[in-house]
Each structure stands twice: as C-alpha cells, then as structure tokens.
Amino acid sequence: MNVSPAPLPADTSSSAASGIRIPPQPQVLIDLVELLGSDDYDARRTAAVIGQDAGLSAMIFKAVRSPAFGGSRAPDSLDQAIVRIGFRQTLNIARAVALSTAIDAGRRRAYELFWTRSRELAQLAALIAEERVSVCNIFPDQAYMAGVFFECGVPVLMQRFPDYCEALLLDDRLDMPSLRDEDLRFNVDHSSIGYLVARHWGLPDFIAQAILHHEDVPRGELGAVRSLVAILHLASHARLHALHIHDYNWERTGDEVLGELGLHPDDLDGYLADLGERFLPLEL
C-alpha cells in the first residue's frame, strides 16, 4: 500500500499569506498512514491506532453496519470491523473523518451538508470505478478517496471567507461558483486549495491533479487523471439524478465523460438506474 506523503507544492506559502489555512493532519491519521505504509501491520495493530480517536472508531463501526459491508450485524470488536471493511477502505474512512474534523465550523448546517454530499459522491465514485475498472484502471478505493477530497477547497475557503458559497451549499440545485469568478473575487479558487490539501495530506499525485483539474474533463491529461475526473463527474451526475435534481453541468461535460468511461449515451439511463438502486443517501 503506497501511502507515503508527497512534497508540498511551492504555492503553499501564497495561500498562507492570504490567510487561508491548510488543515493539518491529526496525529492519529499520521500514525495510521505510517503503520499501513509499513510491512508490519494487522487488524489488531490497526485497531490500536484507530482506538486513540473515539469519533473515528465510531465511524468505522457505523460503516461496517451499512449494506455495502455486510449488513446490520455489528462486529464484536474494532479489529473485526477493520477486517470486514478492509485496510484500504479503513484508511479512506479515517481520512474522511479526519478531514471533516480538521475543517470544523461549529457544526454549521452548510458544513454538515457539504460533508454528507462528499461522502455520497465518494460512494458513487467507488461504485462506478468498480464497474469500469477494466476500462479506466481506477480502483474503487482510489475513486472513494478522490470523492471525499473532490471539493474540499470549498469548506477551507468558507473558513477564510465566511460568506463564501454557503448559500450554494444549502441548495443542491445551484452550481458551485466558477473558478474564474472565484479568482476575480477572492484571488484564489477552490480547486487550487483542494489540490494543496490533497498534497499536504499525502494523497497520490494523480488524485491531487484530478482535484486541481476537475471543473472540466482535462483534454491535455491522459490516463489516470482524465479517467478519475470523468468518474467524479459521472458520480456527481448520478447523485443529482438519484435525488431528482437537474445537473446543469452535464450538457457541457457529459459527452467527454461517457467517451472516457466507454459508455454509450443510449445506455446512460439504464446505467443511472442501476447506480440509483445501489446508492444509499446518507442521513445528517
């Protein structure tokens, strides 16, 4: 499992200069990444690290009771839960919990909605990657992790600029602001900040690059970055479709997304229906 941290990009200092705080990784996550990056880990040792954080432990137990991981029967111990989920997905959940905790704003509803949406997007991205892995070579755990971090620059900027995007987060029918508008108003955009967070938290470079280039399917990028961006766009479209919300971006991106993932437009409705049957909207 390759989880070694990547070096920070040079423009980290510019974000600090503008008062934007890149959230640090908590020690429990650093310890977990170090353990899983070694050749000497098992469920018991992993549980010992996770057990340092009660909130993270609770989320692991909550995840293992979902239909995706075997149903409602609760495991007897944290190490049994980790075995059922798997080490990679355990790390994904740990990153998701740690990130939402690190970017904390007193449980404001806009933040709660944002993290719920991120986890739903991650769930759908993993389902798409599982089904399309032979086409794009993106694995479900990679797609899940990208889904969690996909728009993470948004709550970071909300901390710096309290009115940033909050109204949009409270209404799924509205689009996120354009990167150009963000640059003009705040002299920064959420994709660049999300990229910095992803690099700072040691995500693989192709995931960080996908976050940076996610507004459109990047034509100049081949391979994993382009495929992952396409998966994230389709996951977002599938989520809105399942919630009966119009996707204003699909007309702009849909053809390239389907082409990259090897899907025919005539098959899209059936594909979305199949995803919708497996999609589990989360409760706040």
UniProtKB/TrEMBL annotation:
Protein name, UniProt field: Histidine kinase
Source organism: Pseudothauera lacus
Entry keyword Metal-binding: no
InterPro entries given in the database record: HDOD, RNase_Y/CdgJ
UniProt-recorded Gene Ontology molecular function terms: kinase activity
Pfam families: HDOD
Domain HDOD: 22-217
Domain of life assignment: Bacteria
Keyword vocabulary terms for this entry: Kinase, Transferase
Gene3D superfamilies for this protein: Hypothetical protein af1432 (1.10.3210.10)
Region (Disordered): 1-20
